């Protein structure tokens, strides 16, 4: 089955997606960007690991380049390039990594306040572990996320984090703050040509029974195939 | 025990529920809330204090969009300000109490880990807050949920000391026979394997209970099984010891003669402290001499070696 049949982002009620990956799980970020472009949802895209041209290239492969560019020009997709800011801060001895997200918060705050109260937003952060490696304190990250969440109840947060580069305690705390938790892992049996890895989806939004769905996945040129375990 | 705690038959001023990502205690927490709402509590206000937005939305969903009991004071300030959120909460309760002196409060905090994070993982503020709540007569009960996955064991041990009751949530997976047991009910059943450590304030004893609780999707307790683990464990230990002795290639058993000899044997430590022994010791002191047999290579010097010390 295809990824969009398993996770119907249009109907999804969750407001905090946490993507915890110990392998390359960026396909889910590309998929979500493609979804936000197609659904014309206002998206704030915070890049820490790759440049915007990298994401443009991937969207071009997925056949979304024109809509990606038009979203950038009409302001429905806003990019916050923190990767460049981090490298600038690295050279600046007076910089304080604790304030890395301050500008992002202020700008998003202004845009959300101006918007219609029912409008939906996505805030995609790729990837949070780079900020941690650059020395941003964990409390500052939680502060940023808490502030962002308090802006609007229609703002959906998508956070990508690599478990190998982050404190497991932080990931555990973030998972408690999330509604939809994706854990992307390598195959436990080793390398395979047919399968790239396995993905577990924890739906924490449901009160009674947090369901765990496990799939094997294969990333193809234009889509992601899932096989239920 | 869990039923007594839910029904307030066994009073506990402070309860800590320790769960994990695999074995979440959300339904148990909701059972506590449901039980409280079902019964009439004169002048006792329910204060559910979510620590994050996801938790708040889940609680709103659980309370059927009726926000009765939901207090967002912690959610408003956690991580966003550097203020002492516990002080803010206690101040707010004081205000409410000044309007109605008879008012009591039942406090529920859904995430201890995030509260600790707010104070840079320093447990001091939380310890003080729990102690303060335990002292205050207007706080009838405080219930906090902690996730052990992201808690340092040392901090967790410290925190456990200030709570009157600690509930560990372990296995939540239903076995086939348990599924069969409730199949006729046509309800979704959730299992909780609980270990409860409760400090009785009258006897000052810490009682440990192992219980399995089954609750349905309406948060009603269906069944509670008490487990007696200690006896079964002892039995298992005995069996394994016997099994170990069976396959030996040498004799470890004692015959009647061996036992008799063992009984008659007086070991040195048994003589110590007896009068005879003391006399022998004294005699030895008086008559003791040093016999020195010099070695071939020894350079024996008759001079007093301490001559230069002017004794």
Question: Would you kindly provide a written description of the structure presented here, covering whatever features stand out?
Answer:
The complex is a heterodimer of chains A (229) and B (311). Chain A has 229 residues and is an alpha/beta fold. Chain A is built from 9 helices and 9 strands. Chain A has a 9-stranded mixed β-sheet, sandwiched between helices. In chain A, strand 8 and strand 9 (224-228) form a beta hairpin. In chain A, 38% of the residues are buried. The model of chain A has no long low-confidence stretch (mean pLDDT 89). Chain B is an alpha/beta fold. Chain B has a single domain (2-226), classed as P-loop containing nucleotide triphosphate hydrolases (Rossmann fold), CATH 3.40.50. Chain B contains 13 helices and 8 strands. Chain B has helices at 2-6, 26-38, 53-62, 73-77, 85-99, 112-118, 124-135, 153-162, 176-181, 229-246, 256-264, 268-271, 275-287; strands spanning 14-19, 44-49, 104-109, 139-147, 165-169, 189-199, 206-216, 221-227. In chain B, a hairpin with a 4-residue loop joins strand 7 (206-216) and strand 8. The radius of gyration of chain B is 33 Å and the shape is elongated. At the A-B interface, helix 8 and helix 9 of A face helix 2, helix 3 and helix 6 of B.
């Amino acid at each position: 089955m295809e990824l969009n049949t398993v996770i119907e982002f249009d109907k999804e009620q969750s407001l905090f997606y946490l993507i915890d990956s110990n392998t390359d799980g960026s396909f889910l970020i590309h998929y979500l960007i493609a979804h936000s472009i197609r659904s014309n949802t206002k998206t704030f895209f915070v890049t820490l690991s790759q440049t915007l041209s990298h994401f443009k290239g991937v969207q071009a492969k997925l056949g979304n380049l024109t809509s990606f560019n038009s979203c950038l020009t009409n302001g429905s997709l806003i990019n916050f390039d923190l990767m460049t800011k981090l490298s600038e801060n690295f050279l600046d001895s007076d910089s304080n990594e604790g304030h890395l997200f301050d500008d992002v918060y202020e700008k998003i705050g202004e845009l959300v306040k101006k918007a219609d109260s029912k409008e939906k937003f996505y805030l995609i952060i790729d990837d949070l572990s780079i900020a941690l490696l650059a020395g941003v304190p964990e409390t500052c990250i939680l502060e940023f996320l808490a502030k962002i969440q308090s802006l609007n109840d229609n703002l959906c947060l998508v956070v990508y984090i690599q478990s190998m580069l982050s404190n497991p305690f932080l990931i555990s705390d973030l998972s408690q703050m999330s509604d939809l938790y994706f854990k992307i892992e390598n195959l436990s049996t080793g390398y395979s040509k047919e399968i790239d890895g396995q993905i577990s989806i924890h739906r924490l939004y449901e009160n009674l029974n947090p369901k765990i769905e496990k799939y094997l996945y294969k990333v193809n040129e234009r889509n992601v195939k899932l096989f239920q375990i | 025990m869990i039923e007594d705690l839910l029904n307030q038959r066994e009073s506990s001023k402070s309860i800590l529920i320790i769960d994990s990502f695999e074995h979440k205690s959300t339904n148990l927490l909701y059972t506590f809330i449901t039980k409280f709402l079902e019964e009439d509590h004169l002048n006792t206000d329910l204060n559910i204090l979510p620590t994050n937005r996801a938790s708040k939305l889940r609680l709103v969903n659980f309370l059927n969009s009726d926000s009765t009991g939901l207090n967002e004071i912690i959610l408003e300030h956690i991580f966003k300000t550097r203020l002492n959120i516990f002080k803010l909460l206690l101040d707010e309760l004081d205000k409410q109490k000044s309007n109605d002196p008879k008012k009591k409060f039942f406090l529920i905090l859904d995430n201890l880990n995030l509260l600790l994070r707010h104070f840079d993982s320093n447990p001091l503020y939380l310890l003080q807050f729990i102690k303060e709540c335990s002292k205050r007569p207007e706080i009838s009960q405080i219930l906090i949920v902690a996730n052990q996955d992201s808690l340092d064991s040392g901090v967790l041990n410290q925190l456990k000391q200030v709570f009157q009751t600690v509930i560990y949530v372990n296995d939540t997976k239903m076995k086939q026979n348990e599924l069969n047991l409730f199949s006729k009910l046509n309800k979704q059943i959730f299992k909780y394997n609980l270990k409860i450590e409760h400090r009785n304030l009258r006897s000052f004893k810490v009682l440990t209970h192992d219980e399995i609780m089954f609750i349905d999707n309406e948060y009603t307790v269906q069944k509670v099984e008490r487990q007696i683990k200690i006896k079964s464990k002892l039995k298992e230990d005995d069996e394994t010891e016997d099994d170990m002795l069976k396959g030996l290639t040498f004799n470890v058993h004692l015959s009647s003669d061996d036992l008799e000899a063992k009984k008659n044997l007086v070991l040195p430590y048994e003589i110590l402290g007896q009068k005879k022994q003391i006399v022998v010791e004294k005699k030895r002191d008086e008559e003791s001499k040093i016999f020195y047999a010099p070695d071939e290579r020894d350079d024996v010097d008759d001079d007093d070696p301490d001559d230069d010390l002017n004794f």
